[in-house]
């Protein structure tokens, strides 16, 4: 009987281990110039709880006649350093890639990059060069005159759990670094857009919280839902961004003290609907202490086709998207300056599109929400596993003693 009891304990503990946590991120490649020789594709970055290194799964394709002998160094933060297999590798230096017959599909393991803690690469950028800049590469692959050209980039964002590699179970415990640096999302149009859309969203630390501002070119002359989403993963139609960035118990609403301000989704920023006098460029400006700058790194951002009503209608199709990256502190951040100093903004947008210079705004540009931010979409997965193991262990011990 005691043997059977021990066997039951073994299987219970084994079941708990199967639910071990993992870390998962994705980097979707965006060409610098889509008409030039370049690359496209994505990188899945992950590890399970027992692994000591990160796996990078590359799925890359050449575009517009890119030569097969490309050697590009992945370099988060655009930092210079030796190759990963040198004696003192730089954290941001990754192996060269070599396009063969128009594709590169491979897996690499790295000891140094991390997906959690202060040195997490969530929110960092990976750059692809036209030649190798690795100090140990053959001379034939090095840049002419030592000046490589960046042909594509990607921002490392939280991966959508529905696309994670087989074998990863439990909860995604990847975290963004606590840097307190500004952040930026560069937006591109999705397949749902009827026209070319370009622009950016910036997140700046200010005394009263985080100032969120934006300037977007190509939006239709109406109000458009404007949200931070859970995952920093891009797809043709924006669906890989997942739902709004939120935690347990929050519900969707507009960023107004009159509409559930203290319990709304972290990602609920309302709408963008304030245009210049020619209704060519749309502007957004909103300051809030409901979120922190550290929480937005690696999240996704979406602009919707129609107005967010604050209920189940959040704005329809996603027509523009981007991944929120850590902004380079040595570069002056464009704050999306509106046409005039008295330009008025509106994030409720009850009247649809407005001329921001006519001062017909219906809501305030600041907020003192009382909510606090956990910085994740759900409760910490590691705590769940530890609690489960403790309960299983306690139950198993009592079971053995009783028998």
From TrEMBL:
Residues 1-20 form the signal peptide. One of its GO terms (molecular function) is copper ion binding. Residues 356-379 are annotated as: Disordered. Residues 198-324 form the Superoxide dismutase copper/zinc binding domain. It comes from the Eukaryota. Residues 358-379 have a biased composition (Low complexity). This is Superoxide dismutase copper/zinc binding domain-containing protein.
């Amino acid at each position: 009987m005691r043997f059977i009891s021990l066997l039951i304990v073994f299987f219970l503990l084994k079941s708990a281990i199967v639910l071990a946590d993992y870390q998962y991120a994705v980097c979707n490649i965006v060409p610098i110039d889509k008409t030039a020789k370049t690359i496209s594709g994505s990188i899945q970055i992950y590890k399970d709880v027992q692994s000591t290194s990160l796996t990078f799964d590359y799925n890359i394709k050449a575009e517009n006649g890119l030569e097969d002998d490309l050697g590009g160094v992945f370099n988060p933060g655009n930092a210079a350093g030796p190759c990963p297999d040198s004696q003192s590798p730089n954290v941001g230096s990754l192996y060269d890639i070599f396009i063969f017959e128009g594709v590169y599909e491979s897996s690499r393991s790295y000891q140094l990059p991390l997906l959690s803690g202060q040195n997490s690469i969530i929110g960092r950028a990976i750059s692809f060069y036209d030649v190798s800049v690795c100090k140990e590469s053959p001379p034939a692959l090095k840049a002419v005159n030592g000046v490589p050209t960046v042909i594509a980039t990607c921002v490392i964002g939280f991966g959508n759990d529905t696309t994670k590699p087989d074998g990863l179970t439990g909860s995604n415990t990847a975290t963004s670094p606590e840097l307190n640096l500004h952040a930026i999302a560069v937006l591109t149009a999705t397949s749902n857009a009827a026209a070319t859309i370009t622009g950016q969203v910036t997140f700046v630390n200010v005394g009263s919280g985080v100032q969120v501002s934006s300037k977007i070119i190509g939006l239709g002359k109406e109000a458009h839902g404007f949200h931070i989403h859970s995952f920093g993963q891009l797809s043709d139609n924006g669906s890989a961004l997942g739902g709004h960035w939120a935690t347990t118990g929050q519900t969707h609403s507009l960023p107004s003290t009159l509409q559930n301000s203290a319990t709304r989704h972290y990602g609920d920023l309302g709408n963008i609907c304030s245009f210049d006098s020619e209704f060519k460029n749309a502007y957004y400006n909103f300051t809030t202490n409901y979120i922190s700058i550290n929480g937005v790194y690696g999240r996704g951002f979406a602009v919707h086709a129609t107005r967010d009503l604050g209920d189940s209608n959040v704005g329809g199709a996603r027509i523009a998207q981007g991944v929120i990256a850590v902004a380079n502190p040595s570069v002056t951040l464009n704050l999306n300056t509106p046409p005039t100093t008295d330009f008025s903004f509106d994030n409720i947008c009850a009247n649809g599109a407005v001329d921001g210079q006519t001062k017909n705004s219906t809501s305030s540009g600041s907020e003192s929400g009382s909510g606090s931010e956990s910085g994740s979409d759900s409760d910490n997965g590691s705590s769940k596993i530890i609690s489960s193991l403790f309960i299983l262990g306690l139950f198993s011990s009592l079971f053995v003693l009783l028998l």
